[in-house]
Structures are given as C-alpha cells and as structure tokens.
Amino acid sequence: MSTQLIRPARNFQGSVTLPGDKSISHRYAMLAGLAEGTTRLSNFSTGADPHSTLGCMASLGATVRKVGEGPAQVIEITGTAGAFGQPEHPLDCGNSGSTMRMLSGLIAPHPHHFTLIGDHSLSARPMERIRKPLAAMGAEIHLTGGDGEKGGHAPINIYGGPLHAIDFTTPIPSAQVKTAVLFAGLQAEGTTSLSEAVRTRDHSEHALRAFGARLHREGDRLSIPGHQKLHAIDATVPGDLSSAAFFLCAALLFPESNLILDQVGMNPTRASLLDVITALGGRIKVLNVEEKHGEMIGTIQVNRAPGGLKGMEISGALSAQIIDELPVIAAIAPFTTEGITIRDAKELRVKESDRIALVARNLKAMGATFTEFEDGISVPGNQQLHGAAIDSGTDHRIAMAFSIAGLRATGETEIHGAEAAAISFPEFFSLLDSLSER
User: Fold this and answer.
1) Contact 118, 91 (CB under 8 A)
2) Same domain? 29 vs 159
3) Mean pLDDT, rounded, of the chain
4) Which has the closest alpha carbon to 361: 324, 330, 325, 320?
5) What is the spatial distance between Cα 388 and Cα 406, in angstroms, rounded to a whole number?
6) What is the CATH number of the domain that holds 108?
7) CA nearest 108: which of 78, 79, 77, 130?
8) Taking each helix axis from N to C terminus, what angle separates 241-252 and 272-279, rounded to the nearest 10 degrees?
9) Residue 262 annotated as catalytic
C-alpha cells in the first residue's frame, strides 16, 4: 500500500481538464462491443474500472485497440454485431460494480455460459438486485452464497439464452440495475418497461440512442423494444463530474479560490451536485455549454461566495442522486458554519467499502465530532481538523475525500492506501498538487 502526503494549502486555483466520465465510458464500451462496426472513443476514462469493461469486451469477441498515448489516445472497439462469443476464461470485472451489474444484463440473452468474477471488495457487494429482474426475464443466474440481498454475490454464473420482456419497478434507486434491465430488454422478445420512483442518472438512455436504439420515456416509465441492432459511433467522453466533485469541494474551502473545469459533463440528472455546491456557498458560472450524443458538456468557473461555507441537510432523493459524492461533502463538513447532515444514504454501506464507517473513522482521526447513523452522518460546523493518518480502506473515494480535508487541516495528512485513487482517477494527486497553492 502506498502513502500520499497532503500538506495544508493557502489557496486553490487553476484550470483543469478532467479525464473522461467513468459512467459514460462504461456504457459506450459495452454498447460498442455489442454493435456492428468500429466505434472510436476520445477522452475515454483513465480509471481502472472502465478498463475492466474493455477487457471483458475483448473476452466476449470484440476487438479493442488503444491508438496513441496520453490525452490524445483514442479507444477503437470493433463490435460483435450482436453476437457475443463464448469466453475462454471468467470475465474479470476487477473492482467495478458497474461492469459486473450492467454487463450481466448485456450478456444474459446470449447462448453461452458466463462466469463473472471480481476482486475481494467487489466479491462482497450485493448482486441479487440484478439477478431478480433478469431471472424474471428468463435468465438463469446463480450467485455465490445463495439468493437474497445479503447472500448473493460474485462469482456470478450466467447460463444465457432467449429472454422475454417484463414490466419492472426498481426497488431501490440504482442506475446500474436500470441499465442491466435496459440492456437485456434491448435484446429480448417484446417491449420491456421499467419504472423508477427516484430518477437516476440517464447516461444509459443517451448512450442507447447514440448507438441507434429506440426507447421511450413517459414520466417515470421507460420502455425499450427488443431485438434491436446497434451501430458504431465516434464520440468524445465528457469530463467526469464525479471526479470534479473533489476539486469543487476544495474550491469551497478557500475565500480566494478560482477553479475552471474545461469540457466537463453537465448531464441534468447529475447536476444535483452543482446545486449542492451552490447551496453550500459556491458560485458557479457556466462559460459555455454544448450537446453531444445527448450529453451536455460545458466549461464552468467555480469560486466561493463572500458569505463563506454554509451548511445543509442532504436526504431523500438528493442522497440517491449524489451518492458517490457524499463522502467528500462529509469530509469538508467540519469547515462549514452550520454543519452538514446526511440521511437516507444507507447504500453507502455497500459500496467499495462501508463508506459511512470509514468517513466516521477518519473524521475522528482528524479530531472532528459527529453523530453516525445507520443511513448517514451528521457533522457540526466550525471545527478545526488536524492532520492524521487516514485509512482509505482501499476505497478510491475515501482516499480522495480526505485529501481534500487535508488541504485545510493543521499539519500534514497521510493517506494510506492512496493507490486506490487509480480506480477512478489516476491523475488525482498530481492535479490536486498543481491546483493547490502553498
């Protein structure tokens, strides 16, 4: 395990172009692998997770080429024209729950035996949530540890074959579950319908349309006809807003901050994060915006309003919409004037780690007081943190969240397990250092 030293900063400013959005990269790679023709993707995510997806596509018969190096690299994926092959080995999803859950829906209609495996962390995460709807469509799926939300996990064995449409209501807000059902419905007999009480990020809908699929939304109900063919695209992946969250929160910590994020994804179903940043005391100015393949891409300027860093309560649908960003918001909560309370976020307990427990442990290490709940945490404001040894739990978002807190702590902060950041954002520490004035 590597350790990264974070020293306090006196300001945070500069311009940065973020690596490609992880969520969109996953979906483009999967649909490209199923499509006819060669898809070319610029600014593909540099994180390890989407590259696990690329590896799975290659194992299923797609041809994956990386052309060029660095920011100019293009990923070329020649698809299987709707016919995945029998993999020679288990499909290794690494640490990526997105890969495992969404891929299950994509491959279930194909007449082969697939085994999906992951690392230790992924193998402990719940998979019953995707098994249940796919089984209702006719898929034969066996989870390790038996069925049931607590028992079902990887390795997953899928005995693929023809599927039929269903009318499904998602029991929990989950873009991954929605996507698994849509990907299966794309290839099933009949028209699959899906309803969600809390609308989740809609990257899958935009990606499906970009590759030529027809689907329809009416209110909270989506429908997708089966037996559709996909066609290759050329696309640039927008900058990752979830990665931007760490720098947005850093900008809130300094009165003279000035941060410009170039070509970042501004999908409205992800824009709740920007609303939260504004509510906490951030000033966001959109310098330009355009649409590509249904995704909004813009350049934004962020600094802190004169009134300083406020507080708020995050609960209900908002918690679901910014679930990945909650750890860093909790990590900066001590520096607010009014504190931050997070509720209805029990899903954080079954991410790459128990993120609520790790946030609590590391806030305590840095000298903060708080109240931990089963579904969240409440952190009072007007607290001063001190540097400490941070346990990332090998969770990328915990490692990065407490690096941001360390910028305003007294003394140096050591991030243990810092290499976990590479799961989603390999450039994080070098970019953080370049934007931090000392």
Assistant:
1) no
2) yes
3) 96
4) 330
5) 9
6) 3.65.10.10
7) 130
8) 0
9) no
What pLDDT, in 10s, does the model give residues 258-291? 999 999 999 998 889 999 999 999 999 999 999 9
The string of pLDDT tens digits covering residues 45-56 is 999 999 999 999
Say what percent of the chain tops pLDDT 70.
99
Rg (CA), the chain: 21
Q: What's the full length of the chain, in residues?
A: 438
Outline where DSSP puts E strands in 68-190: 74-78, 91-92, 113-117, 140-144, 153-159, 167-169
Say yes or no to pLDDT of 98 above 90: yes
Question: Is cis: bond before 155, omega within 30 of 0?
Answer: yes
- Pair 340, 312: CB distance under 8 Å: yes
Q: What is the pLDDT of residues 333-376, one digit of tens each?
A: 999 999 999 999 999 998 889 999 999 999 999 999 999 999 99
Neighbours of 113 (CB within 10 A): 11
Phi and psi at 51, nearest 5°, equal -75, -25
Residues 324-331, mean pLDDT to the nearest whole number: 97
12 and 35 belong to one structural domain: no
> Per residue in 144-160, pLDDT tens?
987 665 669 999 999 99
Residue from 92, 240, 324, 395 carrying the catalytic annotation: 324
What is the DSSP track for 334-354?
A: GGSSS-EEE-S-GGGGGSSS-
Question: What are the φ and ψ backbone dihedral angles of 218, each rounded to 5 degrees?
Answer: -135, 105
Do 167 and 314 fall into the same domain?
no
Q: Do residues 155 and 144 touch, judged by C-beta distance below 8 A? A: yes
Chain centre distance of CA 322 = 10
This model's pTM is above 0.85: yes
Tokens of 155: 């390795």
Question: Average pLDDT in the 170-193 region?
Answer: 96
Q: Looking at the 3D structure of the chain, how many domains does it have?
A: 2
Cβ(403)–Cβ(4) under 8 Å? yes
Helix (H, G, I), strand (E, B) or coil at 377: strand
Segments forming the whole domain that contains residue 186 = 22-226
The three-point CA angle 15-327-376 to 5° equals 150
Q: What are 337's two structure tokens?
A: 């004037």
Examine the domain organization and report whether 311 and 182 are in the same domain.
Answer: no
pLDDT tens-place string over residues 372-427 = 999 999 999 999 999 999 999 999 999 999 999 999 999 999 999 999 999 989 99
Question: Could you tell me which of 34, 102, 40, 70 has the C-alpha nearest to residue 293?
Answer: 40
Instruction: Tell whether 29 and 14 lie within a shared domain.
Output: no
Which residues, at least 6 apart from 338, have a Cβ–Cβ distance to it below 8 Å?
310, 311, 312, 381
